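Hi support team,

I've been running sequence recovery on a batch of backbones for a student project. Most finish fine, but this one hangs at about 90% for roughly twenty minutes before it completes. I'm not sure whether the input is malformed or the queue is just slow. I've pasted the C-alpha cells below so you can try to reproduce it. Let me know if you need the job ID as well.

Thanks,
M.K.
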C-alpha cells in the first residue's frame, strides 16, 4: 500500500467498523486474535502518545510486517494518524503514529449529589464540550431535564460524520443515592424516587446512543486508568473525594468491579471516629467542608459551581485547613486498612477540587500514613490523580470507549458470530 493510499480515509470510517471498534469479536480464531492485537496497539499508542511501527513491533512481539498491516488498517479506518517523520537518525526517518482525535467520540453523564455534568470527549480523552449544572440535591425530573436540554448542546459542533462516530453514552452515578439525603440537606423522602428508577432506561429514552451505567467513583477510576497515569501501576486503589468520597480498584491492569459492580465502595469503610467508629464518608467528603463554611456564615456555593477553581483559597481558611486535617487522617486509616487486604502498588487520590487543594490533601495523607503502625505491610506509593474534577464525567464517557477499544484478553475466547454457545 502506498503512502498516499495509507492516508486515505475509507468510506467505512464514516461509522465505526468491525475490528478495533467492534465489541462483537469472534472466538479463539484469527478474528479474535486480530481484534486483540488491534486493541493492544491502540492501548500502547494511547499510553506513549506516539509510537513508530518498529517500536510497536518491539513492544508487542509481533512481526514488523504484521504490525505494519494492522497500523495501516487502523489509520485507514480513522483511529490512528501519521505524525511528522523523526529525522536526525541513521537510516530512514521513523514515522510515529498517534491516536486520531476524531477516531471516536463518547458522551459522559455524571449525576452527583450537588451537580450534574454532561461532557463530550474525543478519542484522546480531550473534552470537546461540557454542560455543568448545580442543585441543592438531585431530583430525577431535574436531572432528566438537564440531560434532555444538554444533549443537543454537547454535540452541536460535530459534523454529521463525527456524530456517526459517537460510540455511546456512559452514566456515572452514585449507587444508593437516596441513603445519604440527610447529609446533603434534602427533605425527607425527596430522593426516594432513585430507589426504583431505571437510570439507563430513563436516559436511553432521551439518547440516540447506547447507554451504560457505572458507579460514579468507579467511573472516575476508569478515567484515571484509561486517560491518566493509572496504567503505570498494575494494581492500585483509587479514591475520589467529591461531595461524598468513593473509590475504585484496579487489579492486574484491569478495572475490578466485583460481584455486584460495587467494588471500591470505600466511602462505607469503617474507620475510628473519636471514641467510636463511623464511615469514611463522614470525614473525607467535601460536604463536611461545606458544612463548616455554612456554620460560619460563609457561602459555599462556589465549591460546587466551579470545582476547578475555589477562588482565593486564603478566604477559606481556617476551615479548609481543618477539613484537610480531618479528611487526611481518615483517608490514611483507610489506606492502611486497604493495603492489609490487597498488596496495592499505589494509592491514587483525586477529587472535585482545585489541583492545589488536592495536592495538599494527598501530601498530608502520605505523611499521616507514614506515622501509622504499618508493621507487616509493604510500602505503597500515594499520589495525586491526573484527571481532576472532571474524572467522574470523563470516566462515564470512557466506559463506551473501554468496551470498544481497550485491550481485552477476553476477545480471544468469545464465541464466533453464529457459532454454538
Amino acid at each position: 500500500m502506498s503512502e498516499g493510499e495509507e492516508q486515505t480515509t475509507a468510506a467505512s470510517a464514516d461509522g465505526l467498523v468491525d475490528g478495533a471498534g467492534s465489541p462483537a469479536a469472534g472466538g479463539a480464531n484469527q478474528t479474535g486474535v486480530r481484534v486483540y492485537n488491534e486493541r493492544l496497539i491502540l492501548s500502547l499508542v494511547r499510553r506513549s502518545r506516539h509510537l513508530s511501527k518498529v517500536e510497536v513491533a518491539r513492544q508487542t512481539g509481533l512481526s514488523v510486517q504484521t504490525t505494519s498491516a494492522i497500523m495501516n488498517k487502523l489509520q485507514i479506518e480513522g483511529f490512528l494518524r501519521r505524525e511528522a517523520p523523526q529525522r536526525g537518525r541513521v537510516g530512514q526517518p521513523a514515522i510515529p503514529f498517534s491516536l486520531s482525535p476524531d477516531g471516536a467520540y463518547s458522551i459522559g453523564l455524571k449525576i452527583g449529589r450537588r451537580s450534574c455534568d454532561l461532557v463530550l470527549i474525543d478519542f484522546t480523552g480531550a473534552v470537546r464540550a461540557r454542560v455543568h449544572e448545580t442543585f441543592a440535591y438531585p431530583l430525577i425530573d431535574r436531572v432528566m431535564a438537564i440531560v434532555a436540554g444538554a444533549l443537543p448542546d454537547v454535540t452541536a459542533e460535530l459534523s454529521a460524520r463525527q456524530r456517526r462516530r459517537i460510540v455511546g453514552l456512559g452514566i456515572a452515578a452514585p449507587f444508593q443515592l437516596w441513603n445519604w439525603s440527610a447529609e446533603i440537606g434534602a427533605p425527607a423522602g425527596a430522593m426516594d424516587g432513585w430507589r426504583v428508577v431505571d437510570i439507563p432506561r430513563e436516559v436511553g429514552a432521551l439518547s440516540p446512543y447506547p447507554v451504560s451505567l457505572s458507579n460514579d467513583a468507579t467511573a472516575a477510576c476508569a478515567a484515571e486508568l484509561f486517560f491518566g497515569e493509572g496504567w503505570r501501576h498494575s494494581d492500585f486503589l483509587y479514591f475520589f473525594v467529591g461531595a461524598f468520597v468513593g473509590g475504585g480498584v484496579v487489579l492486574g491492569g484491569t478495572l475490578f468491579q466485583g460481584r455486584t459492580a460495587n467494588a471500591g465502595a470505600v466511602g462505607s469503610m469503617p474507620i475510628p471516629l473519636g471514641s467510636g467508629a463511623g464511615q469514611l464518608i463522614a470525614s473525607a467528603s467535601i460536604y463536611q467542608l461545606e458544612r463548616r463554611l455554612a456554620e460560619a456564615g460563609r457561602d459555599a456555593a462556589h465549591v460546587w459551581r466551579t470545582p476547578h477553581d475555589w477562588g482565593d483559597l486564603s478566604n477559606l481558611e481556617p476551615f479548609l485547613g481543618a477539613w484537610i486535617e480531618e479528611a487526611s487522617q481518615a483517608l490514611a486509616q483507610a489506606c492502611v486498612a486497604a493495603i492489609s487486604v490487597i498488596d496495592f502498588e499505589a494509592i491514587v487520590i483525586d477529587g472535585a477540587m482545585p489541583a492545589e487543594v488536592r495536592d495538599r490533601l494527598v501530601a498530608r495523607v502520605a505523611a499521616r500514613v507514614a506515622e501509622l503502625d504499618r508493621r507487616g505491610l509493604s510500602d505503597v506509593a500515594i499520589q495525586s490523580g491526573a484527571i481532576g474534577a472532571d474524572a467522574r464525567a470523563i470516566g462515564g464517557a470512557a466506559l463506551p470507549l473501554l468496551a470498544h477499544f481497550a485491550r481485552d484478553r477476553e476477545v480471544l475466547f468469545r464465541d464466533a458470530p453464529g457459532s454454538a454457545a
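--
Follow-up from support: It reproduced on our side and the slowdown came from queue contention, not your input. The domain at 3-102 is CATH 1.10.10.10 (Arc Repressor Mutant, subunit A). No action needed from you.
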